[in-house]
Amino acid sequence: MKKIILLLFGLWSIFNCNAQTWSEVGTGNKALNAEGIISTITSDKNGNIYAAGELLDSSVHQYAHRYIAKWNGSNWSNISRGLKFNNRIHTIITDTKGNLYAAGRFTDSLSQNKGKCFVAKWDGLTWQSLGVGTHSLNANAPINVIAVDSSGIVYAAGEFTDSTTSMKGKCYVAKWDGTDWSEVQNGNSFKANYSINAMIIDKQERVIIGGNFHDTISGTKKYYLMAFNGVNWYPIGNVSTQSQYISYGAFKEIVVDTANNIFACGNDTRVVRYDGSNWNVVGYTSPHTFYSNYSFESLAADDKGNVYAGSKVVKKWDGNDWTQLDSLNVNSDVVYALHYSGSALYAAGQFYDTAGYPYVAKYDLSIGIQSVLQNNIQNNLLLYPNPVSNQLSIVSSSAEIKALQVSNIMGQPMLCNIEQIENSNHTVKLCTENLSSGIYFIKVMDRKGNISSSKFVKE
After folding, report:
1. Which are the contacts of 382, defined by CB distance < 8 A and separation ≥ 6?
2. 330 forms bridges with which residues in the sheet?
């Protein structure tokens, strides 16, 4: 009995060693030294990281141009030479072939399309505009977001509006099919009454958008998401009956997790999710609710089902609870961009390194307990009774229990007495009478080295 109690604390130290922290991507003489806020990040198939926003090119007279920075794993470089980004870059994205696309407030300098915003493409060697002359997008206002589907079709949306008589002044989604730009429509069209700020292609190849456009129900603005399934545009969820879950502020970011649940955030102080049937606030009940004192600016999803949200801090939703990813020194500033690539989360925004420059931060998710739990946890625990009053039985289906750790919802370890060990049937009986009512998490290591995790409720 003494042995397993001592191992409890040993296991706690194992779980907390090599804890992840944020680190700057490129330091010393390899630092980015960004002259301007970074508001968008992406990566390509080879793992290169790209950053853009208000990065000012110091090689150009009076910092007249912005640029896109590339991190190849060793150094940052300016890949924008040859194209004059004369204003802010709002969005960058790559396709499956490794081509990079950029759009924003920058405009064309060619006489035929002068002053019009456009989508730029970089193939690794040269930059070109998607469409020239009569085939140009000719956006009359900034392009806020771009997306690429699995077949390589590029979509663009933002503040630019339709010029046709019937829908003049309405924002829309445009697509590039490799030859020409056209409006995304088929059975019906969708014209937004205000700007489109966010767009993704989900796992069903639907185009999903959100932004400042809204409906008015009982005199109150209700912001919502729209989807295009290749045939029709339609709202995600019922805006009228589920309006309590629709953001009360313009949407800024949309992501989907591995199960194709839709997550969205914006000027509201919550993250909302659509599970295919209903809208809900993510972590609706205390203590799981993550309300920010400020609006959310960024979202990202990894390949393990986790979703990350950025505001003044960055937190992770694992399907059960929100946890903060260490301390990113944002101070009074904001995380404008999150991006997941190669088992790491990247963040950027209006926060600065010790030299006073905005930078890209990296959080390595392959280190520490997150990696252990994601790669080694087996769902082989039986806990009963659950909820529990005085004694909890823990049964491992794999092997004899070697060590365990109980923690509260804040991640703090709790001291619980082991009342009985039954090695013959891999069972440990834990005294829980001194625990306060609430939710607790338990991690167990068996003699084969398997680590299992579960939770129980103390009545």
Report:
1. 393, 394, 395, 397
2. none
From CA 260, how far away is CA 276, in angstroms rounded? 8
**Distance (Å, whole) CA 347 – CA 51:** 10
CA 383 and chain centroid, separation: 33
Q: Has residue 368 got a pLDDT over 60?
A: no
Q: Which tokens hold the place of 86?
A: 């004369």
Pairing relationship of beta strands 413-414 and 401-408 according to DSSP bridges: antiparallel
Tokens 């912005």, located at residue? 66
CB distance 59 to 364 below 8 Å: no
Measuring CA to CA, which residue among 353, 346, 292, 284 is closest to residue 321?
284
Identify whether the C-beta of residue 280 lies closer than 8 Å to the C-beta of residue 270. Answer: no
Listing DSSP states for 176-225 in one string gives E-SS-EEES-SS----BSS-EEEEEE-TT--EEEEES-EEEETTEEEE--
Torsion of CA 177, 91, 362, 366, to 10 degrees: -30
Contact, 339 vs 360, CB < 8 A? no
Q: Are 54 and 64 in contact (CB under 8 A)?
A: no
Tokens of 2: 């003494």
**pLDDT at residue 42 is higher than 60:** yes
Task: Say how far apart CA 40 and CA 197 lie, in whole Å.
Answer: 13
Which of residues 132 and 359 earns the better pLDDT score?
359
Cα atoms in the Cβ-side hemisphere of radius 13 Å centred on 118: 28
Question: Taking the chain, what is the end-to-end CA distance rounded to the nearest angstrom?
Answer: 26
CB 18 within 8 A of CB 367: yes
Highest mean pLDDT out of 15-29, 261-275, 394-408: 261-275
- pTM of the entire predicted model: 0.75
CA 193 to each of CA 133, 170, 239, 268, 300: distance values in angstroms, whole numbers, following the listed order: 28, 6, 16, 19, 27
d(C-alpha 122, C-alpha 419), whole Å: 65
With 0-12 CB in 10 A as exposed, 13-18 as middle and 19+ as buried, what is 97? exposed
Predicted pLDDT of residue 14: 38
- Of 308, 365, 318, 310, the C-alpha closest to 22 is 365
Average pLDDT of span 118-130: 94
Of 302, 303, 196, the residue nearest 253 (C-alpha): 196
* pLDDT tens, position by position, 169-189: 899 999 999 999 999 987 678
Cis before 413 (ω within 30): no
Count of alpha carbons within 13 Å of 61, Cβ hemisphere only? 0
